[in-house]
Specification:
The chain has a five-stranded antiparallel beta sheet with strand order 2-3-6-4-5, sandwiched between helices. A four-stranded antiparallel beta sheet has the order 9-10-8-11, with helices on one face. A two-stranded antiparallel ribbon has the order 1-7. It folds into two domains: 4-131, Impact, N-terminal domain (Ribosomal Protein S5, domain 2), CATH 3.30.230; 135-198, Alpha-Beta Plaits, CATH 3.30.70. The chain has 199 residues and is of the alpha+beta class. It has helices at 33-46, 79-88, 108-125, 147-156, 181-187, and strands at 4-8, 12-18, 21-29, 52-59, 65-69, 94-101, 129-133, 135-142, 160-166, 170-177, 195-198. Strand 2 and strand 3 form a beta hairpin. The longest helix has 18 residues, at 108-125. It is 30% helix and 37% strand. It has five helices and eleven strands. It is rod-shaped and about 80 Å long. This is YigZ family protein. It comes from Lacihabitans soyangensis. InterPro entries: Impact, Impact_N, Impact_N_sf, Ribosomal_Su5_D2-typ_SF, UPF0029_Impact_CS. Residues 19-124 form the Impact N-terminal domain. Belongs to the IMPACT family.
Length: 199
């Protein structure tokens, strides 16, 4: 079960030059496609004279929400190398925009592929990358005399308590990394009257 992913902690920038052309790369952590539109407009506004604003992004952990855009460069020469570099850094929820200023000498498709890849690499290699966990809320309902066992398990697995209730039965809501859900069940399996529910 995938229960963690890597993304950028903050924005970063890189620059790659080849035969007079300049490739300015901007990397952003993103949460949605609205973020993509916002950053594209922002970066384009900063570079009104640039000929190309090529980009790629990945969202989510299931490898299905991604896009690569060549913005007028030859097909596959810009967006795809940017996307492949994001993938090689094992990142998601990440957008990279590369602005190109033409230096007067044509680079050819192999040269463009290399330039967009290297500019992206420049931005990502200096970026602060963080690993985030994918969590769920887990509710445990139990009898009062099982409190000690439940709290021992919480301490042992170093879980975060979100809420506790003491009504007819005791209840606790935990913020749990997904791979720990089975561990909780294993720790408490001998208490058959206890209920564990993923919210």
């Amino acid at each position: 079960m995938i229960d963690e992913f890597k993304t950028l902690k903050s924005n970063s920038e890189g620059l790659f030059k080849d035969k007079g052309s300049k490739f300015f790369a901007y990397a952003f952590p993103i949460q949605s496609e609205e973020d993509v539109r916002f950053y594209l407009e922002t970066v384009k506004a900063e570079h009104p004279k640039a000929r190309h604003a090529c980009y790629a992004y990945k969202l989510g952990i299931d490898e299905t929400n991604f896009r690569a855009n060549d913005d007028g460069e030859p097909s596959g020469s810009a967006g795809k190398p940017i996307l492949n570099t994001i993938t090689s850094f094992e990142l998601t929820d990440t957008l990279v925009i590369v602005i190109r200023y033409f230096g007067g000498t044509l680079l050819g498709v192999p040269g463009l592929i290399n330039a967009y890849k290297e500019a992206t690499k420049e931005a990502l290699s200096i970026a602060e990358i963080e690993t985030k966990t994918i969590n769920s809320l887990v509710k445990i309902s139990y009898d009062f005399d099982q409190t000690n066992a439940v709290m021992q398990m919480v301490r042992k697995l170093e879980l975060t308590v979100k809420e506790q209730t003491y009504d007819n039965r005791c209840g606790i809501i935990l913020d749990v990394r997904n791979s720990y859900i089975d561990k909780i069940r294993e720790e408490l399996k001998e208490y058959w009257s206890l209920e564990i529910e993923v919210l």
